[in-house]
Amino acid sequence: MAGGLLFSLPLLYTGEVWWAGFTMEPPRQLAYLATTFLLLLGYNRYAGLHPDTGWTEVVIDSVEELGLGLLLSAFILYTLGRIGPGQHVDEILGSIVVQAMTIAIGVSVGTAQLGGGEADAGMVGTDKVTFGGELVLGCCGAVLFAANVAPTEEVVVLGADLSPLRLIAVTLISFSLSALILHYSDFRGADRWVRADSLGGMLRGTIVTYVVALAASAAILWLFGRLDGVGLTTIVGQTVVLGLPASLGASAGRLLLQ
Amino acid sequence: MTRALKKNALEWTVFGIGLLLVLATLAYLIREAVTTGSSPPEIVVQLGTPRQVTHGFQVPVTVFNRGDKVAEHLSVVITLVAKTEREEAVLNIAFLPRQSKREGWVTFRGDPGNGTLETGPVVYASP
After folding, report:
1. Do A206 and A113 belong together in one domain?
2. A120 and A133 share a domain?
3. Does A72 lie in the same domain as A116?
4. Do strands B51-53 and B43-47 pair parallel, antiparallel, or not at all (unpaired)?
5. Does the ipTM exceed 0.85?
6. For residue B101, what is the nearest residue in chain A, using CA coordinates?
7. Nearest-CB residue to A33 (from B15, B26, B70)
8. Largest CA distance in chain A
9. Are B100 and A90 a contacting pair at CB < 8 A?
10. Which residues of chain A neighbour B20 with C-beta distances below 8 Å?
């Protein structure tokens, strides 16, 4: 639970996220819930748990974390006076669901990374994470970082304001940071998980990570309604702007969330 | 080879509560997704009984949104029309969710008992 709050507290203290709870329509909330559940399944399958964990346990743990996310979200929002009696159920539930998703992923990552005992073992002992597993871990990292920034007004402002040249600069910075984290840093696991024997391999790994980060950015922006009614240029602008924190999260996620 | 499930009573309880919460949330959201229409915000303003305060008269205002969409940057103009003067107050609300209400107050220098209170125009956007 502490892990959940550690990763999601910025969201709980952000006005735009409170409002997203009631501006987000029920179908989109359902999509948000489903996406989070899939990410939890993926994360619990490829990291955090013991490598010989069966799907039953993965599903049970994911439901547990989702439930804890909902419970914690309701408790904190009530304590902060953001939900309470007198509000319509739609409004209360919307606020809880939006916050609960990041808390749930935080609980999952927190249990695996900060917890002790069996979970602490993580995937130590396994030799290889599959390509799909790497994508899921990258996606979890991207969501964990980008979800804290996505609902803010600043992403819209930057996405609409920045000139194409500056957006290209943001892309290059994101790409370089990904390469740096994945291949030139001494981050835990860098040597083990993403070692590339050639420049081509290194480029391939970085491109895949950046693509995952961009896809996660676009998906989160859509979920928060930031892509509704705006032109293609602004959509690309916002995605690239959010792609910076997302690519940091995706690359660090591939290494640290194992 | 997968290992056997090893969970204690507390973990099963957390799972049970979690499952219940997730299913209830899912059921509610599915019901809302199916039944919620797409009508624009429909704003209804209700004024309460005026009360004398230090610098005038305070009037409680309740604003309802009976529509299916959220109203954003909502402004409600309330006017006190008396025999000799006209006072205008504006209540601003950042967001008014669908099927919800917000409460606020406006204060007039004159006594609403000696005139009539009128509401409108109401201005809002849909995000």
Report:
1. no
2. no
3. yes
4. unpaired
5. no
6. A87
7. B26
8. 62
9. yes
10. 67
Tokens in use for B11?
């973990």
Q: Looking at the complex, report in whole angstroms how far the Cα of residue A191 sits from the nearest Cα belonging to chain B.
A: 28
Domain that holds residue A71: 1-126
Prediction pTM value: 0.79
Nearest Cβ partner of B25 from A88, A90, A97? A97
Last residue of a domain, one of A104, A126, A148: A126
Structure tokens at A131: 């390509």
Cβ separation of A64 and B94 shorter than 8 Å? no
Measure Cα distances from A209 to A7, B11, B77 in Å.
Answer: 21, 35, 52
Among all residues of chain B, which has the CA nearest to that of A68? B18
pLDDT single digits (tens) A151-208: 888 998 999 889 999 999 999 999 999 988 887 776 665 655 555 567 777 888 889 8
Of A19, A33, A60, nearest to B29 by CB-CB distance is: A33
Taking only the tens place, the pLDDT of each residue in B42-54 is 999 999 999 999 9
Question: Rounded CA gap, A249 and A209, in Å?
Answer: 10
Is A144 found in the same domain as A212? yes
Closest CA of chain B from A47, distance in Å: 15
Read out DSSP for chain B? -PPPP---HHHHHHHHHHHHHHHHHHHHHHHHHHH---PPP-EEEEE---EEETTEEEEEEEEEE-SSS-EEEEEEEEEEEESS-EEEEEEEEEEE-TTEEEEEEEEESS-GGGEEEEEEEEEEE--
Token pair of A82 as six digits:
């953001």
Q: Which of A111, A122, A97, A123 is nearest to A36 (CA)?
A: A97
Sign of CA dihedral A206, A208, A213, A214: positive
